[in-house]
Design brief:
Blueprint (H helix, E strand, L loop, with lengths): L3 E7 L5 H7 L4 H6 L2 E5 L11 E7 L2 E3 H12 L1 E7 H6 L11 H9 L19 E6 L9 E3 L6 H12 L15
Parallel strand pairs: 1-2, 1-3, 3-5, 5-7
Antiparallel strand pairs: 4-6
């Protein structure tokens, strides 16, 4: 049987969801025999190639996040959103209480420790979006594993369901901290 090809990405986030994935402990050994990681934050692979499953954590906050999630969606059959940031916008969506201009002014000019501050501008810096968005406001998401971060049990369950050919719906009783 061919291995299921998976690509993962993190957008604007803390990377806690990928850490919860690593917390599936010895189940990761069994999983390694069934899946192949085509791209992830821990590889040096820069481009997405066609995969069976795309997994994303984090909210969409800037133009680079938009490009990454659109490229992942274009290259996967099933897209799974991990964590509250990807599912709902998460903590990063608190930025939506202010305008982008207010955020940049406070962060780079008006802070108490800043002297002669200025808002950085460079072609190398991705532009902030006007609003932080959950992933499903940018691309189609097929399944969700909410939590901040989702428990290793919930992630293991969702991956197991996918490997059995089912779109996972994570039961509420396993969406707790491990």
């Amino acid at each position: 049987m061919d291995k299921v090809k998976i690509a993962t990405a993190w957008l604007d986030c803390c990377s806690g969801c990928h850490m919860s994935f690593l917390d599936i402990d010895e189940a990761i050994v069994d999983l390694a025999s069934k899946v192949e990681f085509a791209r992830s934050p821990i590889t040096d692979i820069k481009q997405f190639t066609p995969v069976d499953v795309g997994i994303v954590e984090g909210s969409v906050s800037n133009t680079e996040n938009e490009e990454v999630i659109k490229a992942l969606r274009a290259n996967c059959k099933i897209l799974m959103a991990w964590g509250d940031c990807a599912c709902f916008g998460g903590l990063f969506a608190l930025r939506n209480l202010f305008t982008k201009e207010e955020i940049l002014q406070r962060g780079f000019v008006d802070t108490e420790s800043t002297q002669d501050g200025h808002i950085p501008s460079s072609d190398e810096l991705p532009a902030l979006l006007d609003q932080v968005k959950p992933v499903n406001q940018v691309v189609k998401v097929d399944c969700y594993v909410p939590g901040c971060p989702p428990s290793a049990t919930a992630i293991g369950y969702a991956l197991g369901e996918l490997l059995e050919g089912r779109i996972p719906v994570v039961p509420a009783d396993i969406m707790t901290f491990d």
